[in-house]
Every structure is written in C-alpha cells, then in structure tokens.
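Morning. Coffee machine broken again, so started the prediction first thing and wrote up yesterday's gels while waiting. Chain of 91 residues, entered below exactly as on the submission form.
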Amino acid sequence: MPKHIVRLIVLLVASSAIALFAKWLFTVESFYEYGHYRADSVPEIAAQEPVYKTARYCQSCHSERHAQWSANNHKSVTCETCHGAAEGHPE
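Came back before lunch.
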C-alpha cells in the first residue's frame, strides 16, 4: 500500500479518536437525559422571569392606545413585536 494512503488512514483514525475523546470530555452528564439538550437547563430556564408580557400588561397604562389597537387590523400583532420586550417597563 502506498505511503500516502497509510498516512491518510492514520490521520483519519487519529482525528476520529480525538473527536470522540473531546465529545466524551465536553458533554455534560445531564445531556440526552430527556432528549437532545441539557436536562439541567430546564429548571434554570423555568426560574427566569418572563421577558415578554401580553397585550393585557400594556393595557393598564395605555388603555386608549389598546382600544385603538384591538379595534383595528393590528390586533393579531402584540405590542412587543414593534416596541420591544416589556421587561423592566415602566421603570
């Protein structure tokens, strides 16, 4: 067998071994527990405060605009689509 083919096979085997070792080393234990994601992230995400509110959140301060909005064609588009997330508003 030619030398360059042997070198190529050795290089492919070594690269595969390094890749498998890196996957084993960097994969968290809770990965694949519930599917193709890190299971420890579920309680972390659930503990976060919601960033997006509903149009009902805006209604208390902007009742006049809310009445115009809900009577027109834009009623299917929430306020935050154009005005950004309501997190921290009205601070």
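Residues 56 and 88 are 16 Å apart (CA to CA). Going to sketch it on the whiteboard this afternoon.
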